Prior knowledge:
By secondary structure, this protein is mainly alpha-helical. About 35% of the residues lie in helices and about 5% in strands. The strands form three sheets. It has a three-stranded antiparallel β-sheet. The protein has a two-stranded antiparallel sheet with strand order 1-2. A two-stranded antiparallel sheet has the order 3-4. A hairpin with a 4-residue loop joins strand 5 and strand 6. The longest helix has 19 residues. The protein is elongated. The two termini are about 50 Å apart.
Amino acid sequence: MSNAKLGDVNDSQRKCPVMHGGLTASGSTNMDWWPEALNLDILHQHDSKTNPMGSDFNYREVVKSLDFDELKKDMKALMTDSQSWWPADWGHYGGLMIRMTWHAAGSYRVADGRGGASTGNQRFAPLNSWPDNVNLDKARRLLWPIKKKYGNKLSWADLIAYAGTIAYESMGLKTFGFSFGREDIWHPEKDIYWGAEKEWLAPSDERYNDVENPNSMENPLAAVQMGLIYVNPEGVNGKPDPLKTAHHVRETFARMAMNDEETVALTAGGHTVGKCHGNGKAENLGPDPEGADVVEQGLGWMNHKTRGIGRDTVTSGIEGAWTTNPTQWDNGYFELLLNYDWELKKSPAGAMQWEPINIKEEDKPRDVEDPTKRYNPIMTDADMAMKMDPDYRNISEKFYNNPDYFSEVFARAWFKLTHRDLGPKNRYIGPEAPQETLIWQDPVPAGSTAYDVEKLKAEIAKSALTVGELVATAWDSARTFRGSDLRGGANGARIQLAPQKDWQANEPEQLAKVLSVLRPLAESVGASLADTIVLAGNVGVEKAIKAAGLSVDVPFAAGRGDATAEMTDVDSFAPLEPQADGFRNYLPKDYVVKPEELLLDKAQLLGLTAAEMTALIGGMRVIGTNYANTAHGVFTESVGALTNDFFVTLTDMKYTWKPTSKNTYAIVDRASGEQVYSATRVDLVFGSNSILRAYAEVYAQDDNKKKFASDFVSAWTKVMNADRFDLTC
């Protein structure tokens, strides 16, 4: 808005028939008016209305018809086809493309599986305008002719991930492989929490309890500052201190699922090629892509004041290449890092960087435009950490002395970085997909379908296990699924293995009891335990439906396999442990986040809509699946029957609701004043939130008892089959 007074506004502005800002301006949304309200938007993002491809389009099938060989030729040709509007450093776009791929994939974090390269989300805000992603808009624009040519057969997500891999190949690295199959999204992802800061690059202290303790960084965050992919290249809060930076690098990379050796390999390999750009004034750059004028056509950081391309490009503010030959895959990074002493200098843009002392002229990299000029190489604070931290130093020396080993470790780490969120190996597509099975892929052997399902169902039904035990165990097995990175789920029956068998949320004593009954039944018919657990849950649901006087079929698809301890990376499953589960009214302690917000996070990771979440909550309560058999939310006198009693009670005005503690409430009969039921915030939100109450009222209606049961079964089956990629691939 301008500073003009109200009286200065002209008539056309006064009479404008639409709201300025297109409903995106501050104060125009419900959340602006009621910031404490429960925001259900994350359950409804990526609606079909945003997708221009139509419901019949299946990218994962269409991409199989892609001419992979021709694409690879075109990609390699692009690397050295320098464009005058954004010329390639040394005539090779490899460094730029690798940075684009790295920054797409490097946004992944293990805590919730969100981020990563699997959706092409780098095209949208906030990622397209992050300070750490300056000029990556140019990389994507350079790729547009390739995307235009191959069209629907090649997603942006695959193209962005593939570009870096091809760049490495074109510069001499033997890569580990590549899989296609990443499907594009069509608007920004609202479910990803990038931090609470209100400004880019706010001090790291804002996301740490103690910045001196990197482990105290707020979960699920993995980068040290808002707008960065991992650490500040100038040091913690911009203050160079390689040993301190090393601790932050270690924590950040661990939160991206990388160990120390992978961290050194990725740092060195990422900086073996390309350069940093800081030969100019950052203040000459225009707004980021989201804030730029329409004439920029989606590009940002444009320099209209001085020359801003080639050697005069400004990106990070640091200026220089890391190696002598920045367009070749070689061991030059370690040769320079370990064989020279380094001192702090300032770049032309004023950024802190490390430069070598008394370097030989022949070891200096050449100018990107004039090969007769040479400049000092540079190192960031993170690079110096690879030399000064004792553990990183040992690994660096090992790589220096064995270049082939370094190349192999890097190639595997790069593959992991770019595929960590693509899901299990059976989802890989294309001729370059590696055949080797890797433990981080959470392998699960194929399960049998050649057994008598009906016989197994009958044996389960005859057991002494209760409906609640059957349903809760199946739910606990399946609820670990995360649509963010396609990990977890019932397939593999990892609920019988460490660490899941000992998780508090899985009630180990009850779990052991149920598995002791189901395991011999599975063996007797040749079924996997994974199938048997899910089938047992279905048996429980069917019993509950019958007890409610209804008849609804519960679908079952056989074929799950059982993973072994040798197939399971125990440590990597720690982030999948439920810290809360509103579906079972499990809340072991109070969190800063409200219980109903934790419920939404779980529902979104499971791929549920708000209506599906509502149906599951109402059904799970009356079936009797609460953690430790608490009575909260069990608004029925017929526990074990799939009735709509939860919703009937919740919407009945003969009751009033009174708090008894921070998270529990008494349901009191207005007439008698006696407590009838108890509830948690998760229960009551389905009556208090206007959207959720609308769903609750549908299920409370007298004519919707069967609809409720049918909708519950549909949502239940969706969760049980969430990780059955063999049914959808």
